[in-house]
Amino acid sequence: MSSKNLSYTIQSVNKDYDLKKSIMVAIKNNAKDYLNPPIKNIGYKGVLKASEEIKQWFRNSKNVESDFKTTATLMEKGGIGGALFRNLYRDFLKESYNLLKIEELNDAYRMFTEIALLWTKVSDLFEKTAETKNIDYINQASEILIDLSQKEKRAMELLLEI
Fold first, then answer.
1. CA pair distance 65, 67, nearest whole angstrom
2. Using an 8 Å Cβ cutoff, are 155 and 104 in contact?
3. Is residue 12 left, alpha or beta, with left meaning phi > 0 and alpha meaning psi from -120 to 50?
């Protein structure tokens, strides 16, 4: 399968475009969608669900080393979530704050700085799981994911109220 849209050309069509307004709409829409996922596998509910699912995944894995090493790499570098997306969103919030000077954006930026670091810890624990095949690292990752679920929920609630 291949994408029908192999490339895009972006061009300005409206000189009166309000970037500041668009940023605020995007932030609020993202927060609303994150806080109200259509299924429990997305958003903070998905993170919380993952905190339990990774234990089962470890027990059912036929190749702990490969499964958790691959997932750790994807979380950090491949774009399935984790620190990669949180780092991008953190940077977006900082740029948005620099443009809009809304203090809640700076607060959310700081929150996502911590959140991204915690996702890196989860990835590191997956790496250790792959190396040692020790479920203790999964249990630690599970606890961090529970914390991450609440931290991300609070950050998005803050952004929704701007």
1. 6
2. no
3. beta
